[in-house]
Amino acid sequence: MTFRDLRSRSLLDLVPSYVAGLTVAWALKSWYSQAGADGLNWILAPVAQLAGALGGIAFEREPRAGWVCHAYGVIVGPSCAGLNFLIVAFTTSYFGFVHRLSHWGARAAWLLASLVAAYLLAIVVNAQRVIATVHLRHWDIYGEVVTQQRVHRAAGAAIYCFALLLFHQAIDRVFRLRRRAPGLPPPSPLVPVVLYLSVALGVPILNRAYRHDPAEFLEHGALVVAVSLLAAISVIIVSRIRRSGPA
Length: 247
Hints:
By secondary structure, the chain is mainly alpha-helical. It has one domain. 70% of the residues lie in helices and 4% in strands. A hairpin with a 3-residue loop joins strand 1 (60-62) and strand 2. It is globular. Mean pLDDT is 85; it is low at 1-9.
C-alpha cells in the first residue's frame, strides 16, 4: 500500500467524525434560531450569575425576557446568549484537532469533550462581554463617529476572537504534551478566525438577513473582519517573538 493510499484511507476514516461534528453544529444552530429566553436559560442563567459575581451586577430573571439588570438597563437575553460563540468554539476545538486522534472511540470522546469545553468557555467569555458592556456605557468617548453600538460591536468581536485564539492554542498545547510532539508546527490562528467569521457573517449572508439593512450589515462586517484580523495578527506576532526569544 502506497503513502497516497494510506492518506486516502485516513481521510475516509475521518468522514464519519466530520459528519457527526457538522450534525451537532447544525442541530445547535437550528435549535437556537427557534429558542426563546426560557429555552436558553441553561446558558443565560450561568452567564448572568457569573457576570453578577465578577462585576457586581444584580440580575433578576424575567420570564420570556431573560435576566435583567434594571440599574444598568442590561438584558441577558437570547441575542446575548452566546450560542453562536459556543458553536464556533465547538467547531474550533473539534474540527481543529479530531484528525490527530486515530481511534473512533477517542474521536467520539473528543466530540463530547469539545461540547463541554465550548459550553464552559461560552459562559466565561459571555460573562466578560456583559461586564464590558456595562462599563463601556459609562465611558465619555461617544459622538457621531464613535457610537456606543460601534464600540459594543468592536469590543464583542475582540473578546470573542482573542478567546477563540487562546482556546485554540491551549488545546494545541495539551495535544503536544500528550503526544510528546513539540516539533509540530504551531497552529494557524486563521482557523478559529475563519470559523468565527463564517458564523458571524456567513450565516446572515446565507439566510439573507443582511437584506433588512444592507448598509448596516456592511459596516458590521467590515468592523468584525478588521477586529478579527487584528486579533490574529497580534497572536502571530506574539508567537513569533516567543519562539525567537532565548530558550
